[in-house]
Write a structure and sequence with these properties.
Blueprint: E1 36-40, H1 45-55, H2 60-65, E2 70-71, E3 73-74, E4 85-90, H3 93-97, E5 101-108, H4 109-112, E6 123-130, E7 140-146, E8 151-162, E9 168-172, E10 180-183, E11 186-190, E12 195-200, E13 205-206, E14 217-220, E15 223-226, E16 231-243, E17 254-258, E18 265-269, E19 281-285, E20 300-301, E21 305-307, E22 314-320, E23 323-328, E24 335-342, E25 345-355, E26 357-363, E27 368-373, E28 381-385
Parallel strand pairs: 8-16
Antiparallel strand pairs: 1-16, 1-20, 2-8, 3-4, 4-28, 5-6, 6-7, 7-8, 8-9, 10-11, 11-12, 12-16, 13-16, 14-15, 17-18, 18-19, 19-21, 22-23, 23-24, 24-25, 26-27, 27-28
């Protein structure tokens, strides 16, 4: 996956990038960057109501957190996983080796709330995508992990659709889910060329039964099959990506939240393997009252900054202490790197992370960076002291 980021507009101007660059434009100037933009679709209100008519009232996040199932195991020697790693957690043994699902994005309750907790809990949310190696594409899912109780549970992301007869149809959300931002009640999930999709945690619904029909999704009479998941979360809307003539379409490979800019911002960026591919980082203003993207009178959301100063093979990026911090994977057998600094002039710290690091998130009160690794039998949730990268 990939990272995104950009300089903190609230930081000391002396530490900011040179004037005239896209990254130097601050929210107060309302100087939007032309060329790329997003437009949100109408919400799937009727479709979600139809799903609730089948499953009953949503359990919501509180109901899910009261029904976490699998153990989240703390690693005993986190420093051995990477030079920057301070703490690490492992998934259940089955999820640790599963080749059907790969973890990708990460966000936390520190993104969701000024208090940095939800329902009094410190919670991590991660995305996974289905590889389809057994011939069944299961789409993508989110996993809520309670750091205090040491338990977690998966929630399948679904796209509800009413067909021409008004019949409810459920489809898997087939996106790479390379990044996630938990902003207030909303989960924004990266969807690469499509843009990103948005769900609301209050819409989490419980599916009767547990681990039934793991290869099926859809309605069978009044019974719902959800690829063996006990909970589903319907997508509410899509922020579709558009490009003006003469500009290259932005790939929303990963996402993070900059809560300390004014207004807060959603940062998105591009994964690029080839030398010819762009490595842009964009920052979109969020409406602090809703957690959704701010929109203009024309209904479009435009970035305040767009910078081509990322690094090759970015997997995740976050802005903290006025600098970007970017993860780069070196494959399934070599430890990952973190690059830090301003776009175009970042410094690499090798061996900072385990193999296969993905998305990034920042926990302000502890000054920690969080990431997740993807490869089977080498999967961890890790936290790092951000100050380690100041050396």
């Amino acid at each position: 996956m990939q990272p995104a980021g950009e300089p903190d507009p609230t930081a000391d101007p002396a530490a900011a990038p040179p004037a005239g660059t896209a990254a130097s434009q601050v929210a107060s100037e309302a100087a939007y960057v032309e060329g790329v933009h997003l437009r949100r679709t109408d919400e799937n209100v009727r479709e979600i109501e139809a799903l609730a008519a089948v499953l009953g009232d949503p359990a919501g996040l509180s109901g899910l957190l009261g029904d976490l199932k699998w153990p989240l195991r703390r690693s005993r020697a986190p420093r051995l996983l990477g030079r920057a790693v301070r703490e690490a957690w492992r998934w259940d043994a089955y999820d640790e080796r599963d080749v059907q699902w790969y973890p990708q994005g990460i966000s936390t309750s520190a993104d969701a709330s000024d208090a940095e907790v939800v329902d009094g809990r410190r919670v991590v949310v991660a995305t996974w995508y289905s590889t389809g190696r057994d011939g069944v594409k299961r789409g993508s899912r989110v996993t809520f992990a309670d750091l205090d109780s040491g338990r977690y549970r998966h929630v399948l992301l679904v796209s509800p659709v009413l067909d021409e007869t008004g019949t409810l149809v459920l489809r898997p959300l087939n996106v790479h889910a390379g990044g996630i931002v938990w902003a207030g009640p909303y989960l924004h999930v990266a969807a690469t060329g499509r843009g990103f999709v948005t769900a609301r945690v209050d819409d989490i619904m419980r599916v009767p039964g547990d681990d039934d029909h793991p290869d099926e999704l859809g309605l069978d009479g009044t019974r719902l099959h959800a690829f063996g998941h006990r909970y589903v979360l319907p997508v509410r809307s899509t922020h579709k990506a558009f490009t003006d003539e003469g500009h290259e379409k932005l790939r929303y490979s990963f996402m993070s939240l900059d809560r300390h800019s004014d207004p807060p911002a959603l940062v998105a960026g591009e994964y690029a393997a080839s030398a010819s591919a762009t490595t842009r980082l964009a920052r979109y203003p969020l409406d602090p009252a809703t957690g959704e993207l701010a929109t203009g009178d024309d209904g479009f959301s435009r970035p305040l900054a767009l910078d081509d100063g990322g690094v090759r093979q970015m997997q995740g990026a976050v802005l903290a202490a006025g600098r970007f911090h970017v993860t780069v994977s070196h494959g399934p057998w070599m430890p990952g790197s973190v690059w830090s600094g301003q776009p175009g002039s970042m410094t690499e710290r090798r061996w900072a992370l385990p193999m296969g690091p993905e998305d990034l998130s920042y926990w302000p009160s502890t000054d920690r960076l969080w990431s997740v690794t993807e490869h089977p039998r080498r999967r961890w949730i890790v936290s790092m002291d951000r100050a380690w990268f100041d050396r």
